[in-house]
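tool_call: predict_structure(chain=1)
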Amino acid sequence: MKHIANKEKDFGQGSVAANILRLAIPMTLAQLINVLYNVVDRAYIGHIPGTSTDALTGIGLTLPVITIITAFANLFGMGGSPLFSIARGADEPEKAEKIMGNCFSMLLLSGIVLSVTCYIFRRPLLYLFGASDITYPYAESYVTLYLLGTLFVMISLGMNYFINAQGFGIIGMLTVSIGAVLNLLLDPLFIFVFHMGVRGAALATIISQGISALWVLRFLLGMKALVRLSSKSMTLSLPLIKEITALGLSGFVMAITNGSVQIICNATLQRCGGDLYVGIMTVVNSVREVVTIPVTGLSNGAQPVMSFNYGAKKYDRVKSAIKLTTIFSIVFTFIIWALIFFFPHLFIRPFSSEPELLQEGVPAMHLYFFGIFLMALQFSGQSTFVALGKSKQAVFFSLLRKAIIVIPLTLFLPSIGGLGTDGVFLAEPISNLIGGGACFTTMMLTVWRRLNDEKNKP
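tool_result:
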């Protein structure tokens, strides 16, 4: 069989670390470049003369919309790709093709519904997200154009998982590299040369995402793909959709709860501190997106390797992948914590040079990123649950850290002991300690123990 005979793409052969890194390095670069789509927009907008802070805050208010769109891309992309990899490992190429086709259909359908719904309700949504009369025009200008590219986001982000799941990490990296480089070039042209402001940033983004989507389709429909996208595979199968969404719920819930946290944080900060603190949270979220990329890249790179070997019943290799992911994640996030603690201005200045934002932003950064290395436990446990198809555990721990811990703390801490805005930023490290510890401990007591039991069976 073509799918198994191609040893270069067979994750059951060779070094586990090499297999993971072969995927993780280009996937990390791809995620870094993908984050640049929105982070670069914020960096340029944060330096528009005269309106930088208000414009930056306005863009920050659109983050929940972007997060919701990403959540649906993750629902089908992250939900389908582990099942796709398990099917490949079990030498079931037709099932793998059907999984990919169904995911593509669901990405298109959900993208259309999302873009229309968010456009119709954009005004009440943006005020719900913490907009003021000053910042609403900037947010509305950006999100109205951004929604036109929703389908591009769904295809480029959601279907790229299936390129990586086939072992083509470099191709997956190029998916976002091409669009991101174009975005990097178009942003200053539209924002500063054509004086389009936030509209220029949105236009540059959707053009770039459109190019990325075309690249994904060109590859998955072409001869180089081990499993190709076909029209017959796009016919929806309800049992398969249920299986995909059940597994994808963890990534979906994580993204939706991230969006909910952003909404609650912005609204609470608007009440306790005003537009300045909503702008600070925009910077903090931007920094978090960038610094966690290597960890998410390695976790995502490990998932196809875990899934394939789990399907092939090579449990020692699954355990090796879990070990590598955990150790790297802890070490890397500990280093990031130290850098942010000692050099916070280096992380803030790319987004704003306003003296007031710098002054108030440093203590906020110190609080928010305190003990970020504990988040590594969540990444390791969560990626393992998803890779091995443990959908219920994956969904529960997604909900635990954000919905059950962060949101209530964000609402109540500001009123305790006069914490005010500090209470909002403190909610994150507390959730990393409780949620991350619980997720990793449960994974070790259940999945790890079962892998040992399966290995020792005669």
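agent: The chain has 20 helices and no strands. Proceeding to next step.
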